[in-house]
Amino acid sequence: MLCQYLQLPDEQAVLITLFGGLLLRLLAIRFRWEMPKFVYKDEP
User: Per the confidence metrics, is the pTM higher than 0.70?
Assistant: First the structure.
């Protein structure tokens, strides 16, 4: 959305999105961020 708002060329928007996603993933690994987990326990 921000790339469209700034009217960046498609190639730059793709690169910014890819590097942004990679950066978030590396930060998640570094700081051990986890997604919420759904734990299903079977009731007897």
Answer: no
